[in-house]
Amino acid sequence: MKLKKHLKKSLLLISLLSSIQVVNASTTIYVSGNQVRLRSGAGTNYNYIMELNDNTALTLLSNEKYNGDGCANGWYKVKVDNKEGYICSTFTKTGIAKSSYNRPWTSPKKAIYGGAEFVADGYISSGQNTSYLKKFNVNPNAYYNVYTHQYMANISAPYSEAANAYKSYKENNLLSLPLHFTIPIFNNMPAKTSHPVYGEEQGGTSTVKDQAFEAELNKQGFDETYKRWLRVIHEAHPNWTFQSLKTNLDFNTSIAREKYTSSVYYTCTACREVPNYETEKNWYIANDQTVGYFLDPRNFLEEDSILMFEDLSYSNNYTEQTVKSVLKGTFMEGTDPIDHEAYSKIFLEAGKAFNVSPIYLASLSKQEVGPKGSFTTTGEQIEYNGITYIGFYNFFNIGAYSSEPNPAKAGIVYASSGAARNSEGTYVGNIGGSPVVPVSNTTNTNNNQNPTPTNNQSQEEPKPTTTENTSTNSSLAATLKSMNLNQKNSYVTNFKVGTKVSSISNKNITIKDAKGNKADTNATISTGYTLNFTSGEKLTAVIYGDLNGDGTINSGDILKMRQQMLGQIRLDGAYLEAAHVKTLSGSINSGDLLKLRQQILGQTTIDQS
Questions:
Q1: Residue among 418, 403, 407 nearest 382 (CA)
Q2: How far apart are CA 291 and CA 260, in angstroms?
Q3: Is 212 exposed, middle or buried (0-12, 13-18, 19+ CB in 10 A)?
Q4: Residue 24 near residue 145 (C-beta atoms within 8 A)
Q5: Beta-sheet strands, E only, within 432-525
Q6: Do the strands 538-541 and 491-493 form a parallel or antiparallel pair, or are they unpaired?
Q7: Residue pLDDT, tens place only, 9-66
Q8: Virtual CA dihedral for 285, 289, 291, 294, nearest 10 degrees?
Q9: How distant, in Å, are the alpha carbons of 43, 78, 107, 236 from that of 433?
Q10: Max CA distance (Å), the chain
Q11: What pLDDT, on the 0 to 100 scale, is given for residue 2?
Q12: Are 59 and 91 within 8 A, CB to CB?
């Protein structure tokens, strides 16, 4: 049976962590996020007075929201520290979280438990107990008012979460579980479902095969536009149950209310309209058609997307073995190195303690930190905004605001909350169950005083310099110069993108691919290839912008750079050097990402020298 697959061909939207809280006016409100600017007027074109951090109390001077550049939701006039100014209402909230979530998170177990409590406290136990309801709070019975307290701005996030969960469930044979789904129904919904680009959706079935199931659908108030999809799902999964959520909200009114908290990435030109209200850099307000598409539950009643409506509360159907199957193939397949407990047991018990599905928690963590983990899961030393942190963990990237220069590191700062600084000015947690001694930045020839770091306390690889080195081998230097190539330590640069092996190799140079095999003469020189000289020298090729080593610069490289910035992967060697397309050294940041995008869009050319 043909099912609708338009979403997979469309839009789409690259998922980044992005939080927007929508608030109602009150006497006292609070800042939501870090480094939020208080401005002298309602708009980003006004000078900023000061930067404010999460949970700063503000006195609301007027219930009015003022229109101005850079904040589609409007600006509040507030007072803080005897200073009056304007703050984008997007970055405010009505109260401070009820719990510190047992921070600082100085072990994986504490981070997982704290993250579980954060998700449960703010959402699952407050009536926003599905991925859909975390994005679109349309539950009239929820703790927070409808259209407020929404977890993310990215309008496609529920679909992304559902797709990732489905992949995990399918790979681990979990689709046979008796899953329960809560599916919203609006008043005055369109008679037909349609995609903003591809038009009317096709699929489902009108054939009734199970009279008892049909009676239950009628009892729940699902009409034919819902039932034609749910019949197909039921035939494949007869033990799944579906419950309607009667929102009693007008569908078109809901589009209008949700529009200004629904963002799309800048590459989705079909998803936004003029004027292009920018919520944050390269993120724009979605147009009415796109909001309506993602808001309409009927567009996602297929096996690979319906999990956005799955009840994320705890269920006794979940066992440690079930959780273990989700974590299979990841670093969490094993044991927590500090508390010496299986990660599967930690997720299960955290879910039970806070009434959250441990499957959801495990899947969410795997999605956030990647199968190999990152510095957010090892406790290793990082530096952010001039402050050093070591021994902290964040398995859900909570606090990793996308507006931060390095969201994953910002998440570590969040995880460290409540920790004290030592005499060296370093915030210290622990690794391996014992206090961590910060890694010294100075060289010490006494090995007893300066021990080699452990695997969990690794030092960052020194960054190559960006000026051409004078080779001690004058013959090699002359050879490279004749080929118009540059040597940077152990790297060779200044290749034109698309250079073929045949144009470089000769009797004095053998070129090998990244696996060490002799490269085909028709192959393209790629990052990771090596030039092996008969004189014995070996240099590794770097194509700036080619982070994945395929010899081209494309969207795959953008993905690699994003994963590096979020701490989901760790580029090293030539691949790390290739990421420095804007910054010449140090950490990869938004400047490099923008430069890479501009190269792909043909707006600039990356300097390969």
A1: 407
A2: 10
A3: exposed
A4: yes
A5: 434-435, 486-488, 491-493, 509-512
A6: parallel
A7: 333 333 322 333 333 334 678 887 666 788 999 987 788 888 787 677 888 888 788 8
A8: -140
A9: 48, 45, 8, 47
A10: 85
A11: 35
A12: no
Q: Are strands 426-428 and 387-390 parallel, antiparallel or unpaired?
A: parallel
Please compute the mean of the pLDDT values over residues 507-518 and round it to a whole number.
85
Question: Which pair of structure tokens corresponds to residue 429?
Answer: 């947690």
> How many CA within 13 A on the CB side of residue 286?
27
For residue 183, give the nearest of 60, 24, 302, 344 by alpha carbon: 302
CA triplet 199, 203, 207: central angle to 5 degrees?
145
Residue with token string 């239950």: 216
| Interatomic CA distance for residues 479 and 462, integer angstroms | 27
A 10 A CB-CB count for 12 gives 17
Residues 235-285: tens digit of each pLDDT: 999 999 999 999 999 999 999 999 878 888 777 766 777 666 776 667 788
From-to residues of CATH 2.30.30.40 in the chain = 28-93
Rg of the chain taking only CA atoms, in angstroms: 27
Residue with tokens 């309008």, as numbered in its chain: 155
By CB atoms closer than 10 A (0-12, 13-18, 19+), residue 104 is buried
Q: Tokens 């679109």 correspond to what residue?
A: 136
What are the phi and psi torsion angles at 481 (to 5°)? -60, -40
Where exactly does CATH 1.10.1330.10 map onto the chain? 462-609
Contact 92, 31 (CB under 8 A): yes
Domain 28-93: give its CATH code: 2.30.30.40
- pLDDT 10s digits, 154-185: 888 888 888 878 887 888 788 888 999 999 99
- Sequence-separated (6 or more) residues with CB below 8 Å from residue 369: 376, 377, 395, 397, 567, 568
Quick one: three-class SS letters along 194-208? EECCCEECCCCCCCC
Segment 511-537 mean pLDDT? 87
Amino acid (one-letter) located at 395 = F
Residue with structure tokens 């819902």?
A: 226
The contacts of residue 150 (CB under 8 Å, 6+ apart) are 20, 21, 22, 134, 135, 136, 137, 261
Q: Sign (positive/negative) of CA torsion 578, 583, 588, 590? A: negative
Name the one residue in this structure whose structure tokens are 């850099």.
281
CATH H-level, domain 462-609: superfamily = Dockerin domain (1.10.1330.10)
561 touches 592 (CB < 8 A): yes
